[in-house]
Amino acid sequence: MFTVCALYHFTRFDDPQSLRDPLLAVCRENEITGTLLLANEGINGTVAGSETAINHLLTYLRALPGCVNLEWKLSTASVRPFHRMKVRLKKEIVTMGVPDVDPRASVGHYVAPDDWNELIQSPDVAVIDTRNDYEVAIGTFDGAIDPKTASFREFPEWWEKNKDRFHNKRIAMFCTGGIRCEKSTNYLLSQGVEDVYHLKGGILKYLEEVPQDASTWHGDCFVFDARVSVGHGLTEGPHVLCYACRRPILPEDQQKPEYEHGVSCHQCVNETSEDDKTRFRERQKQIRLSEERGERHLHADVIDDL
User: How far is the C-alpha of 40 from the C-alpha of 273, rounded, in Å?
Assistant: First the structure.
């Protein structure tokens, strides 16, 4: 059994590049795999390893400048959810593309999972799911608004076009682990919205703490690792990944005529050209040949690049 750790923290790193190699070394020494992102604004990522290894990493991370209050959530996986360890330097640890957004300055009101249901059922509250459209498609909260954004970068534009819908409403937002809401609530505050709330610890914390019979969540929660989705109690969900479009699908979707492993599924079959599909088939052929030789092909790690 592997311990999976989703973590983030907004803090000022003057030289994130200097942190990269020592952090990568700690992860490799402890046989930890996954991806960590470093930027001037902080750290974000999901990693997996033994319980002892993850505890060692968390101790190391909390000793970094300004990281004593690092936010993290633990779950388990029956198989190793990542094949490699990567520490990447980025402009943002979660990309919104708005230069002045700074969660260190101000964020919305945190709402504990136990108090979330009462808030979102209030008639003067609008609940907004800040995740990508393919994530929302497999699960969300009762009454939540789906902005139908393909990436978090599209959220500010969506808000600008739709903000008049929420006049005299309190805004409650949620995301997978909480990090996107740190930015989206700061953004709304900067736009003059006064009553902004977000689910502390995100969907993962809610699914961990709130019993299913008291839950207002329906479906599964997409996660960016080989488990693909989790449900109540953070148990592994039924979804698998289409390696062509990287969207979650159900096992029965693999029986549909549009499905071809690594080439297409019913969601993406019309989004790529025949030339694209020919390339995808060649990629799958090379992966298969590598496996037959007992090697691991580079593109076999596609899950790690989500």
Answer: 39
β-sheet bridge partners, residue 110 = 198
- Looking up residue 69, the CATH number of its domain turns out to be 3.30.70.100
Q: Which domain holds residue 179?
A: 109-219
| Count of domains for the chain | 3
pLDDT of residue 295: 63
Asked if 256 and 268 touch (Cβ cutoff 8 Å), the reply is no
**Contact yes or no for 124/194 (Cβ under 8 A):** no
Question: For residue 143, is it within any domain?
Answer: yes
* CA distances in angstroms from 181 to 123, 134, 216, 251, listed in the order given: 21, 18, 19, 31
Q: pLDDT (tens digit, 9 = 90+) per residue, 148-161?
A: 999 999 999 999 99
| DSSP H stretches of helix in 33-168 | 51-62, 113-120, 133-136, 155-162
Q: Which of 175, 181, 221, 242 is catalytic?
A: 175
Indicate if the pLDDT at residue 293 is higher than 90.
Answer: no
Residue 167: CATH number of its domain: 3.40.250.10
Within a domain: residue 288?
Answer: yes
Q: DSSP state, 285?
A: H
The answer as to whether 244 is a domain residue is no
Cβ(232)–Cβ(141) below 8 Å: no
Same domain membership, residue 77 and residue 12: yes
Q: Scanning the structure block, which residue is given the tokens 């739709």?
A: 162
Which neighbouring-strand residues pair with 172? 127, 197
242 is catalytic: no
| Cα 306 from Cα 302, distance rounded (Å) | 7
Q: Which two tokens mark 168? A: 């005299």
Instruction: Measure the CA–CA gap between 21 and 29, rounded to whole angstroms.
Output: 12
